[in-house]
C-alpha cells in the first residue's frame, strides 16, 4: 500500500511540475550570473554550507552512474538521453549544471522543471529549489506544507544516489524540520519526525562532522523542541537542551561564519529558548546576517528575511 501511495504521489507531483504557477524571484538577480566557467569557479563558495560538495561535471556523472546502477536505471527510464555511456556524460553534465545555475539565480520554477526532466541526478537541485521556494516565497501555509511534503516523498522514492547525496539528504531533513515547527505536536509525533530529524542529521554529520548547514539545523531543531514542549520535557523526553543548542551553533560558526541563515537561525533559537533575556545577542546576530553580501538568490532571500526579523526586534526595543 505504501509503495502504491508513493507511486501515485510521484505521478501527481511530476504532472504538477509544469502546472505549478510559481512566483518569480522578487529581487535583483544580476549579481547571480554563473554562466559558463563562472559556475565551476564559484562552486566551492556557493556550496560552502554543505562542506565539500563535488562539482557536477562529466566525471561526476560517470562516477555516479557506475556506483549507483539503480539510479542509472531510473535516469534511463526517465528518457533523459543519458544511457550511462561515458561519451554521453558531458552533455548530461552541461544540462545538470544549467539546473544549478537556475537555482543559484533564483529561477526556481525552471530549476524544478528542468531538473526533474533529468531524472534522479537533476532531482537533487530541483528539490532543493523547491525547498527554498516553499520556505521564502509561499505565503500560504497549506501550499508551503504541500511543497515540503512533496520534497520528502520524492527524496524517499529516489533510491540509492539520493541516500548518498548530502544536498538531497539535507533538503529532506530541512523540510521535515520546518514542517515540525509548524505542525501540531500530535501530527509531528505520528509522522515520526522527532526521531527521524535527529537520526538524519546524525547521519549527515557522520559523513561531514563540520557541515555548517546540518549543525545550524540541529541547533535550530533543539530550540524548536524546547519552544514547543519546554526545557524539562524537552530534555527528559527528546534529549534536547539549551546547552546542546549552543554547542551546535558554535560548531556551525566555527566551520563557516559567513552564512546568513546560520546567524538568523541562531537569533530565532535564542528567542525560542530564552525569550527576551538574550535580546542583545539576537540583534547582534541578525545584524551579522544582514551584513553578509549574498552570492546567490537563496542567500539574498535569507538576508531579506533576516532584515525583516531585525526590524521587528528593533521596533519592539523602541517601544520598550
Automatic annotation (TrEMBL):
Keywords: Signal. Residues 1-18 form the signal peptide. This is Tetratricopeptide repeat protein. The lineage of its organism: Bacteria, Pseudomonadati, Pseudomonadota, Gammaproteobacteria, Pseudomonadales.
Amino acid at each position: 500500500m505504501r509503495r502504491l501511495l508513493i507511486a501515485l504521489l510521484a505521478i501527481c507531483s511530476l504532472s504538477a511540475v509544469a502546472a505549478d504557477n510559481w512566483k518569480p524571484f522578487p529581487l535583483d538577480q544580476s549579481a547571480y550570473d554563473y554562466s559558463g566557467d563562472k559556475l565551476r569557479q564559484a562552486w566551492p563558495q556557493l556550496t560552502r554550507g554543505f562542506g565539500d560538495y563535488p562539482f557536477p561535471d562529466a566525471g561526476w556523472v560517470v562516477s555516479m552512474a557506475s556506483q549507483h546502477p539503480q539510479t542509472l536505471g531510473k535516469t534511463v527510464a526517465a528518457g533523459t538521453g543519458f544511457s550511462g555511456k561515458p561519451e554521453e556524460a558531458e552533455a548530461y553534465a552541461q544540462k545538470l549544471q544549467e539546473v544549478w545555475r537556475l537555482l543559484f539565480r533564483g529561477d526556481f520554477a525552471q530549476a524544478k522543471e528542468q531538473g526533474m526532466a533529468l531524472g534522479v541526478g537533476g532531482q537533487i537541485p530541483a528539490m532543493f529549489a523547491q525547498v527554498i521556494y516553499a520556505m521564502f516565497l509561499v505565503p500560504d501555509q497549506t501550499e508551503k506544507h504541500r511543497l515540503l511534503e512533496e520534497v520528502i516523498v520524492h527524496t524517499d522514492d529516489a533510491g540509492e544516489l539520493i541516500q548518498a547525496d548530502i544536498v538531497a539528504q539535507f533538503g529532506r531533513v530541512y523540510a521535515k524540520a520546518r514542517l515540525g515547527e509548524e505542525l501540531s505536536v500530535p501530527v509531528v509525533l505520528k509522522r515520526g519526525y522527532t526521531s527521524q530529524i535527529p537520526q538524519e542529521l546524525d547521519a549527515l554529520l557522520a559523513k561531514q562532522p563540520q557541515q555548517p548547514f546540518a549543525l545550524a539545523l540541529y541547533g535550530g531543531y533543539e530550540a524548536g523542541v524546547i519552544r514547543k514542549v519546554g526545557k524539562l520535557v524537552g530534555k527528559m523526553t527528546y534529549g534536547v537542551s539549551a546547552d546542546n543548542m549552543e554547542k551546535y551553533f558554535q560548531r556551525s560558526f566555527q566551520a563557516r561564519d559567513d552564512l546568513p541563515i546560520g546567524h538568523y537561525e541562531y537569533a530565532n533559537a535564542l528567542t525560542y529558548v530564552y525569550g527576551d533575556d538574550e535580546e542583545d545577542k539576537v540583534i547582534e546576530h541578525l545584524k551579522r546576517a544582514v551584513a553578509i553580501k549574498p552570492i546567490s538568490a537563496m542567500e539574498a532571500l535569507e538576508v531579506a528575511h533576516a532584515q525583516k526579523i531585525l526590524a521587528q526586534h528593533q521596533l519592539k526595543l523602541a517601544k520598550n
